[in-house]
Amino acid sequence: MGEKTEYEKGDKAPNPGVYTEVGEARSFHTEIQNPKRIEMEKGDTFPETSNKNRKWKKVEKARVH
């Protein structure tokens, strides 16, 4: 089984890196304007997102359309 790729508030970061907010619908029609970006270390706890429908995703795994 693979590693989880989307995280919610309170989850722990599995690896260090930069994470960004993504929408719940991964359609290119629902582009997020000005998503938050955070730098995390392994084991850090993810903070609240700007919107309850968003999740955190590592930048190199987030699709940009």
From TrEMBL:
UniProt biased composition (Basic and acidic residues): 28-45
One Pfam match: YjzC
Record InterPro entries: YjzC
Disordered: annotated span: 28-65
Superkingdom, natural source: Bacteria
Annotated protein name in UniProt: YjzC family protein
Native source species: Paenibacillus borealis
Upper taxonomic lineage: Bacteria, Bacillati, Bacillota, Bacilli, Bacillales
